[in-house]
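Entry for the shared binder. Reason: the reviewer on the internal report wants the predicted structure included alongside the sequence.
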Amino acid sequence: MKDLRHMLNDIDMEVHLTRHLIGKNSLSDRVMAAMKKVLRHEFLPADLRYCAYDNGPAPIGSGQTISQPYIVALMSDLLNTKPSDIILEIGTGSGYQAAILCQLVQQVYSVEIIEDLATMAQKRLIKLGYNNVKVRNDDGYFGWPEHAPYDGVIVTAATPHIPQPLIDQLQTGARLVIPVGLPYSYQELMVVEKKANSEIETRKVLGVGFVPLTGGHDKEIPYKDHLKPRI
């Protein structure tokens, strides 16, 4: 059975193997320190904690998974966060990615469409002392406009296209990290940067495999394109 040390070594190995795709030889010290501090077994069901530090995804119930540690670390690194940032996460799941982000930024707002997962994640994060994260049960496609604009957005489920509401809720110069592709098919992890005049610049990083982003976005649900000031 692997431990935290093995997981960190596996992440370093994955970074080395994919360095030509991700454009770097190592992840930031801040991200790796967060990966070392957050204990992954605390975010898995009791009967699966034996595999908590394997470098792979694991089921957490409701048809959802906790992401591979390397991918969690990579996506956190690609956000390029600062300690003063306010970040939006779409797809809370078990709360593991949110806990990593809590180590890196001032505040995390996380949206989870499955009510049971949202409730359990919020309770777990509070119990573990993560007081700078709030979880909302809602359709993440539409983000969380009340707290926008954000210094970064991270999406932990795949969508066939980049949701416009999430771009709208980004600060100018901020990044959206998101897997884009069809469900259970080829997907690409992408970095989307919002430029001046709301223009976007996209960069494909590497192939990934995520559960699909679910919700009402396939229907004609109106989205009001406005941002409220941050309070």
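Summary line for the report: The longest strand covers residues 170-181.
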